[in-house]
Amino acid sequence: MASSISTQTQLVARPVGWPTAADFRTVQVTLPDLAPGQVRVANEFVSVDPYMRGRMNDAKSYAAPYALGATMTGGAVGRVIASASDAVAVGDVVVHQHGWRDLVQEDASGFRVVPEIPGVPLSAYLGVLGMTALTAYVGLLEIAGLKEGDTVFVSGAAGAVGTMVGQIARLKGAGRVIGSAGSAEKVALLTEKYGFDDAFNYKDGSLANQLAAAAPEGIDVYFDNVGGDHLEAALGAFNNGGRAALCGAISLYNSTDAPAGPRNMSNIITRGLSLKGFTVGNYVQHFPAFSADMSGWLANGEVVFDETVVDGIDNTARAFLGLMRGENTGKMVVRTA
Amino acid sequence: MASSISTQTQLVARPVGWPTAADFRTVQVTLPDLAPGQVRVANEFVSVDPYMRGRMNDAKSYAAPYALGATMTGGAVGRVIASASDAVAVGDVVVHQHGWRDLVQEDASGFRVVPEIPGVPLSAYLGVLGMTALTAYVGLLEIAGLKEGDTVFVSGAAGAVGTMVGQIARLKGAGRVIGSAGSAEKVALLTEKYGFDDAFNYKDGSLANQLAAAAPEGIDVYFDNVGGDHLEAALGAFNNGGRAALCGAISLYNSTDAPAGPRNMSNIITRGLSLKGFTVGNYVQHFPAFSADMSGWLANGEVVFDETVVDGIDNTARAFLGLMRGENTGKMVVRTA
């Protein structure tokens, strides 16, 4: 019989400001025998994502808050080690949302079987082939309505979503792609590896000045992963008819007060701008189109990606805390083995 | 020969903060003989509008700033008193954008001949039959995408645009229409004359609390004429998928600092909201549809309107200053006679 001890990380307190290790606990659960229709999966990689911080709060949102005392949910990929379902066989690779645990046992309907692709790690299903890159794709094409020749600005550009936004923008005909990130190493990666036309370190000085220098003719699309002063800088740089896809606001997630918004909101009127927020869960109908595009780009070497891998299921909360501090380049995942 | 002395009001200084009478001057200009293709029009009504404050600044915008030392442009309606054009005849009623003057002489191409409607004052072409009501129509239907059953909140609801937004929302199937205004008299007018389901005086207490009481199940559409804390209250009251049409920000127009934006911008992401700014000049293609709807509503008595009339072309700047202070109910116009 397959292993039956599942190590799981649970949320035990709602973080106030920056989350800490004390907000989580790791428990071991002995799994019962499989019920009919269930499968048991040994996860290989578990995802940690910025959006998870928002769901740790008890706030009105599309997604319900995480329950206290329950195992954190979220993306994960693993291999079936036991099955009492005709739909899924032992050995299948499956993607699911059962989250922060090494062994998961649930009804087969909660798992999606995916192919193994030679040369592509299974963790790609959490990033470049998964919800992370879908987020970039939907935000850029559906929410911001990217048009050929647009100048695109992406904040948090060296993150899992940002690196995809920059590459998809280029592949879909953007005229110029600019990114901001928080270290010289990340900035170098943006232009040298990810094909950004220009990039800057937001810690190096005035955001508005750095953005104006990188986009002297203004920006048409802004993909916001950061919020706060980044959004204000984008509003100041927008051309008439500019469009912002608001995806994340990592600069605000761990703030204990309610920080004031941009001082230049009136530009939204005078320049005819549009700001639209989204959470990718409401746009999964675009997955087939995304998947077709992305598989082709990957096969042709037109899209590259980085992963920051943290080892050990016990370290999942630690990995998440590092993500909050920007310790990742590209997608951050936990390797269970 | 027709009268040839034109009294005109010009912008002579860019206001800093609240505009004052010293920012304007009134001059008298002797018109030359008509050149071929020109017409001379005696204005009956001249429009003063909140958007004009924005164009008095020297700022990047869809519309160019007003030139200093030049006569203010803007909507006006009058009667042709001399014509050297085959397109326009003496006695025709015309609408145009030549602005703050009693007599105007320009090429016929700048004038649009409109019918006289029994029982409807010519000033209606500046309000309920003109750009003002088109602004409400476009903002509500095209920008905010009003859907049947939506709960709609309008700020500055007793103004020229706001009174139209409330009525058009109701006629186009809104489930509930709520307005805010700045006096008890205006609030009473909203529910008693304009068919709002509920209304409140924003000076009476917490905007968020008053809005929550008026819309206990949240709002779906916000039509913003005010900006600032009104926008923040709307962001706090939005249901998932809410849509804001940002039309004006009169609370900010005369601010000398750059006031901070809403403290709850992150709701845009978590609730999947959309904020879109617009200036009606970019949506004139909707005029025929608007005109057909509005003519029918007026003929059937389904739309009512107020005007605040200031007498004397010499008082145009004074009228505008009064508009900035909210001294109008409905459309404010200057009667030249």
Biggest interface, chains and residues, is: A-B, 38 and 38 residues
**Largest sheet composition of chain A:** 7 strands, mixed
The beta-strand count of chain A equals 15
Radius of gyration of chain A: 20 Å
The CATH superfamily of the largest domain in chain A is identified as: NAD(P)-binding Rossmann-like Domain
The N- and C-terminal alpha carbons of chain A lie at a distance of: 19 Å
Number of domains of chain A: 2
General shape of chain A: globular
CATH C-level class of the largest domain in chain A: Alpha Beta
Helix fraction of chain A by DSSP (H/I, runs of at least 4): 25-40%
Kindly name the structural category of chain A: alpha/beta
As residue ranges, the low-confidence spans of chain A are none
Quaternary arrangement of the chains shown? homodimer
Classify the fold: give the CATH topology of the largest domain in chain A. Rossmann fold
Give the number of helices of chain A: 10
Strand content of chain A: 25-35%
Going by CATH, the architecture of the largest domain in chain A would be: 3-Layer(aba) Sandwich
Note the run of SSEs of chain A as H and E. Answer: EEEHEEEEHEHEHEHEHEHHEHEHE
Overall pLDDT score of chain A: 95
Protein name (chains A, B): Enoyl reductase (ER) domain-containing protein
GO molecular function, one term (chains A, B): oxidoreductase activity, acting on the CH-CH group of donors, NAD or NADP as acceptor
Keywords (chains A, B): Oxidoreductase
Pfam families (chains A, B): ADH_N_2 (PF16884), ADH_zinc_N (PF00107)
